[in-house]
Every structure is written in C-alpha cells, then in structure tokens.
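Think of the structure tokens as a kind of shorthand, similar to the way a musician reads notation: each symbol stands for something richer, in this case the local conformation of the backbone. In the example below we present two proteins back to back. Begin with the first one, reading the sequence and then the tokens, and try to describe in your own words what changes along the chain.
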Amino acid sequence: MSQLIDDEIREFVQKELPLITTLFLKVIEVRDDSTLQEIYEPDDIDEMLEKYFIRFDVERGSFSPGNYFPWKTHSFLSRKAASAEKKPLTIQMLIESAKAGRWLYE
C-alpha cells in the first residue's frame, strides 16, 4: 500500500509539472530527492502544490510558500543569482506528508 502511494504521487508530480529537457532535448530525470525549485518555475510548483493538497487530502498545517520561495534571487550588483537560503522542496517530502495526512515540514 505504501509503495502505491509513493508511485501515485510520483505520477501526479510528473503529470502536473512540465516536462523539462536539456538544450539537446534530453529529458531531465527528477528523483525523489531532487530539489524541485532547481528544476521548475515557482508558478508551476505552486499550482501543482495547490492540487496536491486537495488530491491527497493533506492538511496544510504550517506549510508556507515563503519557506521555499524565492529559491534564487538576483543581486542588484551582480548578474549571478544568489541563493535566497530557502528550504529545498522534494517529491520525498510530498510522499511523506501524504502518508501522514498533513504537511510535516516547516
């Protein structure tokens, strides 16, 4: 049963988030421990999360998008993106929270 939930959430995330490829059209693999903010746009993740909480009946509890976004910020004096020191968001977090029925992370 547990594996069934894991697979269902993986499929849900793949369906809800856009397919991401390299410049040479190689599909980027997203693992359970991949940091979603490094792969997808914030708006795409936010939309997926809204559906996730409803679809898997997960209580939001202490979930706040501000804990995870913005992932990178642009420095005023530099072209290089600076880390905003936010928490990584992973598929594994979604799986564990769905099993618990509530958001487990702050």
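Once you have a description of the first chain, move to the second and do the same.
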Amino acid sequence: MIRCIHLFTGADGKSHVEDRAIPIDVVQAATAVHFEETAAGSALDWHTAPHVQYVITLSGTLEFTTRDGETFVLRPGDVLLAADTTGSGHRWRLIDDQLAAPIRRVGPTRNEKVRSVCQWRLGCQEQPAISRLTSGRQKSPIP
C-alpha cells in the first residue's frame, strides 16, 4: 500500500485531512502530468487546489496546514490527493533544506464521471475507472 493523504472540502466548507492508502496494483488514467521543482525554503500561503489532483512528492519534506489547524507532513514517496477545490483552503511550506520535486497528476479524465481511487475507498458510491495488473500485464491500458 502507498500512503495517500486526502485533502478535501467537508460539508462545513472547510478543508480537512484523512490519511488513507492506495493499493500498489492500481492504475488510473490522467488528463495531464506536470513536473515541477520548488526551491528549498519555499512556502505557499492560503489557497485551494486548482482542480482535483494527485501530487506525488519525489524529494523534499512539506508541511501542510488547514485553516482549522489540521497539519500533516509529506515526505518523498507520499501521495497527496488534493481535492479541496472550494472552501477555506490550506497552505504549505518546505521544512527541510531539499528542493521539493512533486509530480502532479490531473484528473479525472475528460470523459470519466467517476471519483478517484482514494475518494472511492473513502466511501463514495461510484467506483473509479481503474485497471489492475495481473500476471505482469495490464487488463486495460491507460488512455
């Protein structure tokens, strides 16, 4: 399992955090993948996610805080499902001297009307469009 932090807007309109896991054999389609690097010591003040996205941290240690004071730390290998596209938002800062190098997976795909793997595992009614790896080969390719 891979650690997945789900950052979402609750019914109260505020950003909240849940610590979840993603099975290693899950494959999910993406509409875009964005690579970026953030300088050591950087921070981003209060904001919401621009769209639902996975952020996979490759290097650097980041501390996130919601307006209600919920905090969590992302380390290399952790996955963030940023889904708080409305509401009070969050902020982050680099807490070590490393460059932050996240990969952002933007989704769901244009035609996909399902929720992400992390959201589905949190109890949503719709199943995600995923394929599972079996016997070393993919059942359905990523579009």
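Compare your description with these statements about the second chain. The first strand starts at residue 2 and ends at 9.
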